[in-house]
Amino acid sequence: MRNPGRLVAVAALAWVACAHQAPPPPAKAEATPPPAERAERPDDMAIEGTLGTLSEDEIAGPFQRRWDEITRCYEDATAHLAYLGGRIELKLRVAQTGEPKSAYVVGSTFGNWDAERCVLSIARGLRFSRPRGGPEAEFTYPIEFRGKHAVTTWEGGRVEPSLVRHKRDLDLCKAKLVTGLPPSLTLTLYVAPGGKVTSTGLAADAPLEDAFGACLVQKTRLWRLEDPLGKIAKATVGVAE
Q: Which pTM was predicted?
């Protein structure tokens, strides 16, 4: 396993990308693996910002210390929907105190709002080292969860007509927004036999208001999409204004 201990600088108007494997779990976790063995630590990380610096160890460490709780989010979600799986990518801006100034789900193919919010809640409570060389640092942190059962993957275009048909639902939920809809919003949907949507997840390029997200997820559960004919299908699609 590579040593992820190198320092990643975050300079003004600079962008740095690196690949690593998170450090191994502590001895206790090795002796008694967490129940969500299908949950994998990230294999890549992108760091960007304007002033501060954090090493990869300083980023991965706080997540590793809360890993049992993160995998519990996965186990709770898959207790009833065993086929859930995919990547949840978090974006955090860390303040001078080491506390997250902002955190949100910037990308997700996991497709379950409750699990995404669960992981995000943990991330918002993490404490990092103080950024060096400036007051703040910003990075993305992906977490991959392997599904317990295979699903059929659909291209986003296959469900876009359904979004058009249900645009009224989107408009009704947008009425709950205070700050407006982020420029980029994606939905990941699981479709069961008969075309019933069984789970929905959301990601955006800015913090997403809970009232809007909960509303849209609830609306999608009433949708009927194309019948996957005895299989579970999954699609990730962008949502336009």
A: 0.79
